[in-house]
Design brief:
The longest helix has 13 residues. The chain contains seven helices and ten strands. By secondary structure, it is of the alpha/beta class. The protein folds into two domains: 150 residues, 3-Layer(bba) Sandwich (FAD/NAD(P)-binding domain), CATH 3.50.50.60; 102 residues, no CATH class.
Length: 297
Amino acid sequence: MDAMSPAPVHVIGGGLAGCEAAWQLARAGVPAVLHEMRPTRGTDAHTGGTLAELVCSNSFRSDDAETSAIGLLHAEMRKLDSVILAAADIHRVPAGSALAVDRVGFSADVEQRLTETSLVTVRREEVTGPIPAEWDSVVIATGPLTSPDLAEHIVRLTGEDSLAFFDAIAPIVHRDSIDFSKAWFQSRYDKGDGADYINCPLSRDQYVTFIEALLAADRMAFRDWERDTPYFEGCLPIEVMAERGADTLAFGPMKPVGLSNPHDGDRRPHAVVQLRQGQCPGHAVQHGGLSDQADTW
């Protein structure tokens, strides 16, 4: 680097935020060093070592710039040549008005774009803290899966005592296990291609039976590192929502609005399990979850 070049900005964390930060710095002519500890050190949730690996939902939520603040943010990011949105648009999968991606292709695309950018240097190493004094400018873009040493350093720097929360996860539902004499393809209000989701209807009695079974079901015990982590109110586990009232799910992720059941005279069901296309890492299968905001078929 010559004497006239700016000092590099060190970006800690190779997730969505860190990758975008490094990309935008490079576009502005500023060299960036992107630090990512994987695959040298793994986490309890990641399955690989690529940058921008999605470990929860494969959805970036609404892509409707006319009616959604999130969709408007997507549009603004596209105008700014976002690396995340560019890769997402190429690897999107059907999801109605939402932007959902093939997580494997998306992650590989983001990594390729960054590693081929001359002003971005990717270092596969764990940053433990304290931050080296010679790093003039630093962006800390690490998330809930931060390594313990760095997390402790961030706590000391910020004075915060909680830096993570639980997000909901989605179960895998294989397409060949679905009875299409009862389920049907349709997006809410026929958005997107109009048939991006698989809808599994529930009558009132079926819904009540489901809620009772859900509340009585066995639960997986928390691991030590999970015990004191709070829930994220914006994406609660289904059993936590059910505990807040019998009709919570029917007015939440299982709401049947914008849907009509062709197997029942186009009537609206009492509740619906809506499944969205996705892909299991390492397996070319379609899978799913219980919410139009989480992984689905």
